UniProtKB/TrEMBL annotation:
This is AAA ATPase central domain protein. InterPro entries: AAA+_ATPase, ATPase_AAA_core, ATPase_AAA_CS, P-loop_NTPase, Peptidase_M41, Peptidase_M41-like. It holds the Pfam family Peptidase_M41. GO terms for cellular component: plasma membrane. The lineage of its organism: Bacteria, Pseudomonadati, Pseudomonadota, Alphaproteobacteria, Hyphomicrobiales. Residues 291-432 form the AAA+ ATPase domain. It comes from Methylorubrum populi (strain ATCC BAA-705 / NCIMB 13946 / BJ001) (Methylobacterium populi). The keyword Electron transport does not apply. Keywords: ATP-binding, Nucleotide-binding. Residues 1-22, 672-715 are annotated as: Disordered. SUPFAM superfamilies: FtsH protease domain-like (SSF140990), P-loop containing nucleoside triphosphate hydrolases (SSF52540). Belongs to the AAA ATPase family. GO terms for biological process: protein catabolic process; proteolysis. The keyword Nucleotide-binding applies.
Length: 715
């Protein structure tokens, strides 16, 4: 019969166990080691005058290290059985002390429980346990106590772990030079917070923090919120409340995240996905090869391209670095050497700050090497080549998400836009009515909280996000100078004052013109999207419709000609004469008709000839087809005069109509109000005579000349 089991000696070697592989398994392993260390310490407590327990911040550090360690295959086994030299980089300085304590508890050789220990305490068997060294703030590598620990680890062939925050080391030189592995630890995520709560409290709350809140949790938050006495639910509620309040304060001071902005369309969806990937990369969850390398944002000035980059960085929780060719040229009076040095310095800074977002503003300022000429050609080519070298780089730009902005994407060298560089391009459109309403509400904050901003947004249509910020700022100044609260009239006054207004007669003509496009497009089966009267006198209006097919027949193109000439025909029908507002429509319609006869084989001949050298006979046929298309548009407008007048009247009042609003007006019964010109009944208009009822035609984009997509008639 065996005697009683011999008690395990404190610090004795643990039994061998299976090495965990997945992130959650490694985290459980780390927390188990932390718990075992706590269980091993009771024999020492009589030698501690003021014992304390490991706080939840230490458990949080163990969780962070566990998830990061899982991405380094074999490193856990080496830490337990070999003598690697490892540097652990924590998110910020507050994590250094908790991480040191967690690593000493899990891999170290001495009791790490906080407290005041007596000098006569017994020593543990150290074996090959790790020595953990933390960074010293402001250190410039002098000899210090931590150097003794480093030397001891080398002398006794023991694992050595250094803990630091950020690029400034503060670690011994010997440790830095011998480093074999550098582990960058990210912030917590919802699963990580659940691990901490379960370890400390002994249960998991039903509520789960959002990813954004969890990523902002720091060691002080864990220490103040998570306690066994509060339970899992109470701990999570307190933690969420603390962090959310801080995030609200930071958001007000530092700017908005991407999810808080509106009006970016597909670019916003891409940005949210890219921010999530960048955040996952910072936590070592995915490799950089799985992340988007860069994006080009194109759009008119003031549409929020730079704001997008700033919000993207906030969304991912990483810093934003901004640069431009003008900034780099100013570093040395545009001398080639100093310009390239400044450019390389920017990219090197971004690599050191990774993960981060690097903004290159006005990317079109580099130009296109195909179009360089003159004595500056060599200089400009070398600048573009320098940028391409930086974009690729010998060490790459892992962790650096590139964002380029431009007002003219067609002026950028194609090599800059190839895959792996700025291979994704999004055009930021002008804000819609709903976008403008949301943007104005964002800038107004608590002012005019109960006001409906829809009508204000209609008046602001054609404006940008930057315009909205300016209008709100000026409206507040107007109210402040009058010594009263901000009123809706102040905002309307600033919007109207920011651009020259049109007279009633001009507004009516413009509304008639755009309504003419919409009525004929609807009658011929085009899918209407929107009709807009822009607020400035120079802006005019626009009617957008969808073109459902890529390839067009002659009949389809005649349909399109009628739509483009319908605005001019409506002006003649209602106001008695055409105006110069139809110039753009005439130019587009003429270009389509010329291509029909000279390029596409859909006119009088199938031989291709340059439209510029069009024979006089063909020019006469183009004129004939355009006049017939105009007559056909007039015929449709005469039959739908009630719809034309109703749509123009509504558009004048509301400034913008979407597809559903137009459809409701254009469904009125067809009825003639007056006589109009007859539609010539010959082969050239067979595509028109078949469609005087709503349907779906198959047309071609006037803007793209036989490429499918969407088209817009502008006046």
């Amino acid at each position: 019969m065996k005697g009683p089991a011999k008690p395990r000696e404190l610090g004795a070697k643990r039994r061998s166990r299976a090495i965990p592989r997945s992130g959650p398994d490694v985290v459980r392993h780390m927390l188990q080691r932390l718990q075992e260390q706590s269980a091993a310490e009771p024999g020492f407590l009589e030698f501690c005058e003021e014992p304390e327990r490991f706080g939840p911040e230490v458990a949080g550090a163990a969780v962070l290290f566990g998830f990061a360690l899982a991405s380094r295959e074999g490193l856990l086994q080496r830490l337990e059985n070999a003598a690697p030299v490892v540097i652990v980089e924590v998110p910020h300085a507050e994590w250094i002390e908790p991480m040191r304590m967690a690593l000493e508890a899990c891999f170290g050789s001495a009791p790490t429980r906080p407290g005041i220990w007596r000098k006569d305490r017994p020593k543990l068997r150290e074996g090959r346990r790790a020595i953990v060294v933390e960074a010293v703030a402001g250190r410039i590598h002098p000899v210090s106590k931590s150097d003794g620990g480093t030397a001891k680890a080398f002398r006794e062939h023991r694992p050595l772990i250094g803990v630091l925050a950020g690029p400034h080391t503060g670690l011994p030189v010997d440790l830095l030079e011998a480093c074999e592995e550098r582990i960058v630890v990210g912030g917590l995520d919802p699963e990580g917070v659940e691990f901490v709560v379960d370890h400390v409290v002994g249960g998991i709350a039903r509520r789960r923090l959002t990813a954004g809140v969890a990523a902002a949790v720091g060691p002080r938050d864990l220490r103040a919120a998570i306690h066994r006495a509060r339970g899992a639910e109470g701990s999570i509620d307190r933690l969420a409340a603390m962090v959310e309040r801080r995030l609200e304060r930071c958001r007000a001071a530092d700017g908005l995240r991407l999810q808080d902005l509106t009006g970016y369309g597909p670019a916003a969806d891409w940005g949210l996905a890219a921010a999530a990937d960048l955040s996952a990369y910072s936590r070592n969850r995915i490799s950089w090869s799985a992340c988007e390398p860069g994006v080009l944002l194109a759009g008119k000035p003031g549409t929020g391209k730079t704001s997008f980059a700033r919000a993207l960085a906030c969304q991912a929780g990483v810093p934003l670095l901004a640069g431009s060719l003008a900034q780099w040229q100013s570093a040395g009076e545009a001398h080639l050497g100093t310009t390239l040095a400044a450019m390389r310095g920017f990219f090197e800074t971004a690599r050191k700050a990774s993960p981060c977002v690097a903004l290159i503003d006005e990317l079109d300022s580099f130009g296109d090497r195909r179009h360089f000429s003159g004595h500056n050609r060599a200089y400009s080519v070398q600048v573009v080549n320098g940028l391409l070298e930086c974009l690729d780089g010998a060490g790459g730009h892992a962790g650096v998400l590139l964002v380029g902005t431009t007002n003219h994407p067609d002026r950028i060298d194609p090599a800059i836009l190839r895959s792996g560089r700025f291979d994704r391009c999004f055009t930021i459109p002008l804000p819609t009515i709903s976008d403008l309403s949301a943007i104005l509400r964002q800038h107004l904050g608590t002012d005019l909280a109960d006001a409906d901003l829809t009508d204000v947004a209609r008046r602001a249509l054609g404006g940008t996000g930057a315009d909205c910020a300016a209008w709100v700022r000026r409206a507040r100044g107007r109210a402040r100078r009058a010594d009263r609260m901000l009123a809706l009239g102040d905002l309307l006054f600033e919007i109207d004052a920011s651009a020259p207004s049109r007279g009633e007669a001009e507004d009516a003509r413009l509304a008639t013109h755009e309504s003419g496009h919409a009525v004929v497009a609807h009658a011929l089966g085009f899918e209407l999207q929107a009709i807009v009267l822009h607020r400035s006198a120079e802006g005019g209006g626009s009617t957008s419709f969808r073109l459902p097919d890529r390839y067009a027949t002659r009949a389809n193109l005649l349909d399109l000609l009628a739509v483009y000439l319908a605005g001019r025909a409506a002006e003649v029908l209602v106001h008695g004469a055409a105006s110069t507002g139809a110039a753009a429509d005439l130019s587009d319609a003429t270009a389509i008709c010329r291509h029909m006869h000279c390029s596409w084989g859909l006119g009088s001949r199938i031989a291709v000839s340059p439209p510029a050298s069009m024979p006089a006979k063909v020019a006469a046929l183009v004129e004939r087809d355009l006049r017939r298309a105009s007559d056909a548009a007039t015929c449709i407008l005469v039959e739908r005069r009630r719809c034309l007048d109703a749509l123009a009247s509504t558009l004048t009042l509301r400034r913008s109509l979407d597809s559903a609003e137009m459809e409701a007006i254009l469904q009125q019964p067809v009825g003639s109000v007056g006589a109009g010109p007859a539609v010539p009944d010959d082969e050239s208009t067979v595509g028109l005579s078949r469609r005087l009822k709503p349907g779906r035609g198959k047309v071609v984009s006037a803007r793209r000349h036989a490429d499918g997509g969407a088209s817009t008639c502008r006046s």
